Amino acid sequence: MMLVVRLLRGAVKRAGSRPPCSTERLISAARGISSSSQDFSAFGRTQSASCTDTDRPKILITGGLGQLGVGLAKLLRRRFGKDNVILSDIRKPPNHVYHNGPFIFSDILDYKNLREIVVNNNISWLVHYSAVLSAVGESNVSLAKEVNITGLHNILDIATEHGLRVFVPSTIGAFGPSSPRDPTPDLCVQRPRTIYGVSKVHAELMGEYYHHRYGLDFRCLRYPGIISADSQPGGGTTDYAVQIFHAAVKTGHFECNLRSDTRLPMMYIDDCLRATLEILEAPADTLASRTYNIHAMSFTPHDLTQEIQKVLPDLKVTYNVDPVRQAIAEGWPMALEDSAARRDWGWKHEYDLQELVQTMLTQINTGNHLAQAN
Ligand SMILES: NC(=O)c1ccc[n+]([C@@H]2O[C@H](COP(=O)([O-])OP(=O)(O)OC[C@H]3O[C@@H](n4cnc5c(N)ncnc54)[C@H](O)[C@@H]3O)[C@@H](O)[C@H]2O)c1
Ligand SMILES: C[C@@H](O)[C@H](N)C(=O)O
To answer: Domain NAD-dependent epimerase/dehydratase, which positions (predicted)?
Structure first.
C-alpha cells in the first residue's frame, strides 16, 4: 500500500508543472487508498469538473443563510442561471429564499452528506461561507473550533477529492496586534488573538497547502467588515456598522459597542460580492497568490455617525463599550493594503463612505432592502 502511495506521489511531483486538474485526480486517488482520516472510497473514479465547466459551473454555497450568502446566490444566479447555484445551511430558509432557487440542508460537519450533495448535484465550484464569527466565537470556542476548523477540513477534502474550485473567505480578523495595522499588507506577521482569527489563518494556510500539494483550485479573499441593508450580521465585531443604519432610520438613537475612535476597514456588500465573483472567474494564471486582501474604506464610529448625520441630523449616538469586541477591534487592521488584488485580477471598489451611507439609507428608507431580498 505504501509503495502505491509513494508511486502516486512521484507521479504527482512529475506532474507539478501541469494544470491542477491532472494532479487533483492523482491526489484524490492517492488519498483514496491512504490511511487518511477520510475514506475516499471513490478511488480511481473521481471527477474533475472545475477545469472544464467554468462557463456554466454548478455552485454550492455553504452557510448560505448568513449575512452574505443570499446576496451572493442572487448575483451568481444572474450570472450562471438560477438552477446552477444551490444555497445550503443548517437553518430553515425564509419563504422568499426557499422559493427563489435551489435550497438544501447541508451540515458541513457531516462529511458523507457533503460528499453526497457534491456528487448528486454535479457541483464544480464550492463557496464556503459557513463560519462562527469573531464575537460569537469568543463566547463559544468549541463551536468555533468545530465549525471553522473541522468544517474547513471537510470542505478542503471534498473539494480535493472531486476536483472543485473552492472559495473560502478570510477576514481582517486573520491579523492581530503584532501585524502592521495601517495599512496591513498581504504578507506580514499574523498572530490573531481570537479563535475566529486563528481558524481563518489556518484556513488560508491549509487552502494554500492543498493548492501546492494537491493542485486544489483554492481561492481566498480577506474581507473587511461587510455592510448590508437586506441581511443582518451574524455576531461579529463590525456589526455596529450595520446596526447603526437601522437604528438611525427607526428610532434616531444608537448605542454603539465600540469606542468612537475605533478605526476598521469596511466594505459595502455589493463590492464584496462582486470581488468574490471576480476572483472565482479569474484565470488561474493571473493569480500570483491564492489569498488576497481587498480594501474599500476605513472609518471610525465617529466618522460614520457624522456622515449619517449629514442626512439624518437628529441621530444621537451613545457609547456603551463591549470590552470583548473592543479588545478584538484594537488588534485588527485599520486599513488593508490591496495593491496585489488590483494588479493581478483588476479589483476596484465602487463604494466609499459617502456612497455607502447614501445607499444604505435609501434602501432602508424605501424598503428596497425587503424588495431586494425577494
Ligand atoms: N460578514 C462579514 O463582515 C464578514 C467579514 C469577513 C469575512 N466574512 C466571512 O464570510 C463568510 C460569510 O459570513 P456571514 O457574515 O454571512 O456569516 P454569518 O455568521 O452571517 O453566517 C454563517 C452561516 O453559517 C451557518 N452555519 C453554522 N454552522 C454550520 C454548519 N455546521 N454547517 C453549515 N452551516 C453552518 C449559519 O447557520 C449561518 O447561516 C464567513 O466565512 C465569514 O467568516 C464575513
Ligand atoms: C470582520 C468579520 O470577519 C466579521 N464581520 C466579524 O466582525 O467577525
So the answer is: 59-294
